[in-house]
Amino acid sequence: MDNRKFTEQELIRREKYKTLVERGRDPFLLTQFERNATLTELKTTFAKFSKEELANVEPKQLLKTAGRIKLFREAGKKAAFVNIQDQDADIQLYVRMDELGEDNFNAFRDLDLGDIIGVEGHMMKTDHGELSIRVCQYTLLSKALKPLPDKHAGIQDIEEKYRRRYVDLIMNPEVKKTFQKRSKIVRALQKFLDDQGYMEVETPILQSVKGGAAAKPFKSYFNALDHEFTLRIATELPLKRLIVGGFEGVYEIGRLFRNEGMSARHNPEFTTLELYVAYKGLDFLMNINEKILKACNDAVNDSSIIHYGGYEIDLGKSFARVHMVDAIKNVTGVDFWKEMTFDEALAIAKKHHVKVEKHHFGVGHIINLFFEEFVEKTIIQPTFIYGHPVEVSPLSKSNKDNPRFTDRFELFIIGREYANAYCELNNPIEQYSRFEEQLQEIEFGNDEAGEMDIDFIEALEYGLPPTAGFGLGIDRMVMLLTNSESIKDVLLFPQMKPREGNN
């Protein structure tokens, strides 16, 4: 027994459905409706003909198509114009009593906005030149028991727009186009990497040891193994194990999970690309990262000039490459090339009002804080920031000329990070030491620090060749390439706080 409270409109629709059942016309018993054309195919084929020409080019067989009713207007008592919508297009139907018969026409007039129907008929154009289907017969395929929002007002509550994505997709064709573009971007990404000879793989989502990034995980319990697991925060360590195993180029496009805050830029469940290639270095990573972004843009946009957040971004130019310390010096005047003690760096931070968590920080943490505080927001055009301090890069190889810094970069556009890349640390002795430093950070209360992964250490002890690897945020890239303001606009089902009373 359904004890929910229904609106007057919902009650009327349920009564209509009850009547259909009583008349032996229950639409939910139907299992299929074979179309011989989509609405786009009909428009492509017949839009070029005039009203007079359509009478001669019309095929003898009836055209069969289907869609959701979006607009219904009567033309007197014996005719009606109806607009239906399928995945990619909409089209007008012209329905007449003398064509359907009085009983069927009256039943047709009793349909509601949102109902899904199949129609058979012939193409025509109205006196105003609008391409239409003259309906010979119809079939109700699904009864909408809830009314659609007003087509002009749309979904007023922005939270409901994301909670009820299915309604948002029905009402807003532009939203649907965004997700179709997202699919094209991912396909373009895969094709680009496949064409380079790299292999797409899948690695576990449940992991017994947290690692591969600095983030707070979601925790779960694996009953069969009697052990606590976490949802992965990165795919990095399993992929590098595959390079140890002999594959020379592997990538994964997959979901990651980080138990952190939510904002216009962050969702706790998100999608990344991670790529690892043996025998390659930092310049290779920058070059391929740039090519990937351009290839994905070409898949959905006609120009290398894109607009986002009021800025004009030129993806056609070579991306700038700037060392993190130089970027800080350019913006603040502070020169972190000079070697200094932690206390000296702390004094500089206090002078510039940069808050420092002294109990587990080193000079490198302060350098990174300066970059985040003062530099990130100033970067507009695509820029590779490289040379991160070793303290904030536990999985990256130290720079051979200045071991205070690492062979690592991040890609920034309009103040946002889009990619993170390393020359991978392949020295198992140093990696063990870095993991120990992460454990100390955990003791000091840093719940984002990584854990000791002995199996990964042992993998490195078998030998990891020089390897280049990077992660790219798919969601943020889609936001950029589709001019979407919020990450929720490019996630079909973003995480939302449950509605009250929704069990």
TrEMBL record:
GO CC entries: cytosol
Location(s) in or outside the cell: Cytoplasm
Record-listed Mg(2+) 1 binding positions: 410, 417
Keywords, ordered alphabetically: Aminoacyl-tRNA synthetase, ATP-binding, Cytoplasm, Ligase, Magnesium, Metal-binding, Nucleotide-binding, Protein biosynthesis
Annotated SUPFAM superfamilies: Class II aaRS and biotin synthetases, Nucleic acid-binding proteins
Domain annotation Aminoacyl-transfer RNA synthetases class-II family profile: ranges: 182-498
Needed co-factor(s): Mg(2+)
Superkingdom of origin organism: Bacteria
GO molecular function: ATP binding; lysine-tRNA ligase activity; magnesium ion binding; tRNA binding
Binding locations of Mg(2+) 2: 417
Manner of cofactor binding, per the entry note: Binds 3 Mg(2+) ions per subunit.
Root EC class: ligase
Reactions accelerated catalytically: tRNA(Lys) + L-lysine + ATP = L-lysyl-tRNA(Lys) + AMP + diphosphate
Enzyme Commission number, as recorded: 6.1.1.6
Assembly information from the UniProt record: Homodimer.
Stated name of the protein: Lysine--tRNA ligase
The species this protein was found in: Williamsoniiplasma lucivorax
